[in-house]
C-alpha cells in the first residue's frame, strides 16, 4: 500500500529550476533511500513535503489525503516527521520531558503527570530496544543517543513517515548498527522512512527501495535488490560534462608540503606529499576529515600526532605561526567564518595582512588604497567603493574579497575549504581560473570540495577521504566523477562495488 | 537659467548630506537637542544662557572623570563585553594615587602610579575574562565588590599619615610641596580667557588619541573585527583573546588617568560613597554616543558627546527648581530609554515606510 505519492513536483527559486517534474512514491512500512549529489534537489523536495517551502506545481498525497501547499503544522498533524541533520533537542530538559515536549500529560489539576510520562517513555524505549534512562538530562547524552531520542520522539508522536537526513554522519559503526536495528523494528510496525544518505554500504544494507534525483530532475527509482552501487553512482552523476575545462598541465616544483602520519580531530594517519605549484583537491562526504585536516594545517585545530613540514620546515603552533610561514586558509561557511559584517570591504580585505604587519601600528591609507585597486583588478571584484559594507556584495564577490584577504599576506600555500559554496556559476568559473593562475605563479593550492566536476577542472591530483582516512589518490587523467563517487561513498567496499571501478 | 532647476538639484543633495550626517553623527545631534532643552530651562527660570553654562558642562566631574572612563567602556562594549568594576576600581586606584602623592610628593610618580594601579585592576578583569574564559558580566561584578571592599578596608587600616585623613577618606596632604601645583594650578585651574579647565583639555586630548587609535591603527580595526565576528577574526589570524584582555587593561589605565584627575580636581575620595553607579553612567555615555551594545559598531568620538549629553541632562534636572534630586535618576533613565528606542525603532519604521511606498507603486 502506498503511503506517500508526490507527482509532477516543480519548484523554481528566482530564475533557476530547483525541481522539475519530480516523482517520489513511498510504500507503507518501507525504508526508501532518497539519493543525489549536493544540489540535486533532495532538500527542496523534503522541504515541500514538510510544508517549509511551497511548490509551483504538482500534487502530494499522503495517507489517503490530498495536500496542496500545506503548512508545517498540517504535515506534522498528518504524521510526517523531519529528523534534521542538526539534532533538535532541548539540552536542559530530561529525556522524558523531551519526548513529551508540547504534548505533556496532565493530572486533573493541570499539573504535570511525571509518573505517567516516565512510564510511557520506558515502555516506548523497551519496545524499540533503546537503552536510555528517561530521567537523564539530555545534555549528558551522546550524539547518537540524542539522534535516537529525536527518532523516538517522532515515533511517540505517532508519526507515520519519518524523514531521516543523513542520520549516520556523527555515529560510530556500532551506533549505526543499533540505529538500524531500531529502524527495522519500527518498520515492522508499519512505520515508513525516507532515508537520505551518501554512504553506499548503509543504503544497500538498510533500504528497500530508492529514488535518484539529479540537477532537480527525477532519474530513477526501484528496488535496491535490482540495482548495484555502480548503477546508482552513474544515475547520480549522469553523463560527464567537461566543457569549459580550464585545466592545463604544468611542470611542478619540488616537494613543498609533507604530511607524515598526521592525526588530529577527525582524521588519522595522513601521509601525503604535495609539490610546489600543485593543485590538490581533497574530497569526500561531510565529516570525512578533509575539512578538519585543512584546519589543522592552518593551526585552527590542533595536530595530535605526526608531523607537518612546509618548505622543509617543521611547523607547529597557532594560526599566526602558520601565517608567518606563508599558509593561508579560506574557511568554509563564508557567512560564519569569513564575513566580518561591521567592517567595510577594504578592512575585510586587509585584516589578515594587518596581523602580519602589526608592528607598523598606524595604517598607511595610500598603500591600502593601492592594494585594494590591485586586488579589485586582479580578481575582477565588482565593488563600487572600498568603504561600502561587505554585505552589499554578492556571494561570489564577497568570496573574492576573502581570496584577496589572503593574497595580501603573500601566502605560498593556499588552503581553500569549499571555495565555491554559495557562489553563482559565472563566479565559480572565475574562481577556478584564479586557482590555476595562482598555481602557475608557483603557489601551492589545496581545495576541499564536495563538487566532483570542479575537481576535474582545477586539480592535478584528487585525494579521496572516507571516515578520516585517505582511501584513494587519483591523478588528473584518472579523475572521473563516477570513480570518485564510488570511493567517497565507500561503495568499493560494498557488494560487487570493486568490479566497477573503471 | 532660472533658479528652480538648480534648487531641484541642490535640495536633494543637501537632504542626502543631512541624512548621512544624521546616520553617522547622530550623537552630535542628540547632544545639541539636549543642550537646546537645557538653554530653554535656564531661560524659563529667568536667567540668560551663557558661555559659563557650557564651560560648566565641560568641566563637570561627569564629563571629565566619567567621560575618560567611558572611553574604555566604549572599547570594551565594541568587543562585545562589559565592565561593571570601573566605579570601584576608580576608588581603589584613586586611593593608591593619593597615598603615592602623600608619600612621594612627586606629580610624575603619582601619575605613573595611577596608571599602573589602573592597569593592574583592569588586567585582573582581562585575564579572568580572556584567558579563563569567564563571562565579563560576572567577573566584573565580582571585582566591583572586591575593589570597593578593599578600599573600605584599607582606608581604615592605613595610617592617617598616608591616607591624609582620619575620617575614612583618602585626601591629599596640603603640607606637601607640590599640593599647590597639582590641585590649585592644574586640578582646578583653567585656561585664562576661555575659562575651560586644564583637566578638560586632558580629557579632550585623550578623546583625540582614542579616536585616532580606533580609526587609524590596525589595533583599532581589529577591536571592531573581534566585536563583529569573533570566529572570522580568529580565522583571519587575529589574536582574539589578547584583544579582549587588552581592552580591559586600557580601560584600567583610563581609570588610572581618571583617578589622577579626581585627585587633582577634588583632592580626596571617600570609598563608602564615591564612584557609585559610575559603571552605569559610563554605559549611559557610551549608549548616548551611539555605540551598539551588541558590539562591532560605533564611533568612539560618540563617547565624548555622550558624556556631554549625560552631564547636560543632569544639569537640566538640577536647573528645574521644583524637581527633587531624588527624581534625577528617573529622567536619566528615561532619556536613555528614548535614545535607544530611536536607535532601534528608527530603522524599523523607515523600512515600513519604504514598504508602504513600494506597495503604493
What does this structure look like?
The complex is a heterodimer of chains A (502) and B (361). Chain A is an alpha/beta fold and 502 residues long. Chain A has 2 domains: 2-237, 3-Layer(aba) Sandwich (Rossmann fold); 255-492, 3-Layer(aba) Sandwich (Rossmann fold). Chain A is 34% helix and 25% strand. Chain A is built from 17 helices and 20 strands. In chain A, strands 6-7-8-3-9-10 form a 6-stranded mixed sheet, with helices on both faces. In chain A, strands 16-17-18-13-19-20 form a 6-stranded mixed sheet, with helices on both faces. Chain A has a 4-stranded antiparallel sheet with strand order 2-1-4-5, covered by helices on one side. In chain A, strand 7, helix 6 (173-188) and strand 8 form a beta-alpha-beta unit. By secondary structure, chain B is an all-alpha fold. Chain B has one domain (57-354): ABC transporter involved in vitamin B12 uptake, BtuC. In chain B, 75% of the residues lie in helices and 1% in strands. Chain B contains 16 helices and 2 strands. In chain B, strands 1-2 form a two-stranded antiparallel sheet. In chain B, helix 6 packs antiparallel against helix 7 (136-157) and helix 14 packs across helix 15. Chain B is globular and about 80 Å long. The model of chain B has no long low-confidence stretch (mean pLDDT 90).
**What about the largest sheet of chain B?**
2 strands, antiparallel
Structural class of chain A comes to alpha/beta
Give helix % range of chain A: 25-40%
Rg on CA atoms of chain A, Å: 25 Å
Q: What share of the residues of chain A does DSSP label as strand, in percent?
A: 15-25%
CATH superfamily of the largest domain in chain A: P-loop containing nucleotide triphosphate hydrolases
Strand numbers in spatial order across the main sheet of chain A: 6-7-8-3-9-10
Computed Rg of chain B? 23 Å
The top-level CATH class of the largest domain in chain A is Alpha Beta
How many helical stretches of chain B? Answer: 16
Shape of chain B: globular
Largest interface comes to: A-B, 27 and 22 residues
Strand content of chain B: under 5%
The poorly predicted ranges of chain B are: none
The first-to-last residue Cα distance of chain A is 40 Å
**CATH architecture tag of chain B:** Orthogonal Bundle
